[in-house]
Amino acid sequence: MKKTIEGSFAVAEVVRDCSPDVVACFPITPSTHIAEELDKMYANGEIKSYTAVESEFSAISMIVGASAAGARAFTTTDSQGLALMHEVIFAASGMRLPMVIVNANRSLSAPLSIWNDHQDSVSERDSGWIQLYCKNNQEVVDTVPQAFKISEDTNIPVMVCMDGFYLTHLVEQIDVPQRDMISGYLPPRKALYKLDPENPITMGMYALPATYQGFRIDLHEDVIASAKNIKEEMEAWAKVSGRSYGNGLWEEIGLSDAEVVFIGMGSVMENAELAIEKMRKDGKKAGILRIRCYRPFPSEAVKALAGKKAVVFEKALSMGADAPLYSELCTCAKEAGVDCELSSIIGGLGGKDVTVADIEAMLSEAEAGVVKKVWGD
Amino acid sequence: MKPANGKPGTSMENKTGSWRTQMPVVDKEKCIKCGQCAMNCPDGCIFVTPNGAQPNYEYCKGCGICSQVCPVKCIKMVTEEK
Amino acid sequence: MSGVFENKELFKSGHTACAGCAVATGFRHIMRAVGKDCVIVNATGCSEIFTSAYPKSAWEVPYVHCVFENAAPVAAGVVEALRAMGNDHTKVVVLAGDGASYDIGFGHLSGMLERGHDVLYISYDNEAYMNTGVQRSGATPWKAYTTTSQVGSKIRGKLQNKKPMTEIVAAHGIPYVASSTSAHYTDLEMKVKKALSIRGPKFLNVLCTCVPGWGTDPSLSIQYLKDAVDTHVWPLLEIENGYLKMNMKPEKKPVETYLKGQKRFKHLTPEDVSEIQKMVDERWEGWVWREKVDTERKKELGE
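^ Those are the sequences you sent over. The predicted structure of the assembly is below.
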């Protein structure tokens, strides 16, 4: 049943109903409301534990410890907080511990900015975490239970990315999945291994050159293989909730007959939906390819781009190189032998507005074959 | 899925005795079986037996702590011929 | 392995600590006192390296290591998870060096203590970053040579004093803080057991000789720790519910007894030694004074 609720509070509700054992958070705009609401739930006895730690570094460290002990563990953060977690982010996946972070995407300093872009989580793309980018709050609350399921099935941590402010602070009608629906879908965690005095194991060992590479390649291959889980969980969740988002890895809208395609991630893709709807009314064949799962990278998605012109719009930079999503799509297209014309546009950094009209203009430029590399001042 | 987890107590496979250049030799006649050597050994490799202290040379690195803490000085460190 | 050499300890032989490592001796005592029903959380450092090189482990109990500076919050996560899942008995014990405790993980340790997690945090203090090859830490004493507190023509060893960690931790008002050494095993085991009988955060500061770091003979690792206590350099004490108790008041030996033969101190002048003696005496008097005040106060309050 739909209700009017702020995105952050809806996230807290769905996290609560996923029955986490340990939640540890440090407040940082714009994810703070999620943390505050979870603490309120703890104060009301609605979740088993909540720890207000002294830093994001301790938040991720606590959920690493909790997950190692066999618990279902959750935290939320963004931007500087995620950057502070960086060291442990890599360790968490390397230790093969399931856990979920909701990252309220925000720009990175300097200059300091609290507003949205994707630089924080995109900068963690190589960490061995699954990354799922949501276009709206409905998708966020539908994705969190899937994230726990995928993570606990694969022993790979999952980051659910929702745009800071655009989604976290948006009050709208959301059908927040209820506990009974979630419990039918997400069983209690059964740890494959854990810290247990009855069955002691040594976790987080150090590896010599003879073994280190093997562990890293194994994780890499398992992250690639997790695409299957992501697809399956989208199907399973669709059965439970009646809602789905593409095949879980990517979402196509009007792609089959499109001549120009807008490619991107996150909430800007809802604007893109409005833009192509308008363009189609005007007789222009525009379409959308939304990358939902950034890691593992859905290389198969490029196949639908054959013979098309596309704008790859992204809110993140790889300083001194091509934009990350663009360069990865170019590589995939080349490897798959897909002939398409991709153009890179960077925009929306630090909360710069990207309107429906902007997206229309980007697609018109792509059609004409002249594309600005950076959108806006 | 291959986590870097280990099984308990498997360090026992490391026979650190090969590191040793000096070896403790116990004069069992003098040994009073007080257990000081066993308590202070970093490697847990000297044991008090009914016959007196007995080093486990499989693990003994030859640090000489046992010899040094022995109240009756019944453990001598001797250069090991290999 | 059976017979005479049967190793029933929870911290096994075959670890790859240096010959004469007092950290390893200390861990044996600690584990004897902790027992089986525990989770050990280790910070990156010597002990992590010498006990857990894949695939061989010296641990007979559940053990986890994550990174250098996060042993305290990892332990907090472990204990919150165990309690949330209905396990009310398993003890969570951190083993972390002075680098992890005094320095890089200091803020996270402070946070863990302030929040009151049911964790025993044991700092094994060998007074420098030994794992990376002897660099100075906040725990390195005044004037000591390390590879980053060099002895040159202008500067001769560490310019700063050792961080008063025991007092800093005690200032958090946690129920139990104590100091011990790897050599004083009766004291150490008593303190570990006592700490584990108390709910909430507990802290033990355990001095450990480091053979390569201190430049000492491996056979003397235990003797140096006895000397540290006998010279009043490292008092054995407990601060329980805020009240200080000194566990041992040995007749003071001159500080040279402890300093001599340690290569890290070999450049000390007689003036340096008397300055150290003065500092040690002042600190000792401070402890004795505080114990007196605390004892009187305890009496007054009828506790």
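The two ends of chain A are 42 Å apart (CA to CA). The interface with chain C takes residues 21-22, 24, 48-49, 51-55, 57-59, 61-71, 73, 87-88, 91, 95, 195-197, 200-208, 211 of chain A (CB under 8 Å).

Shout if you want it in another format.
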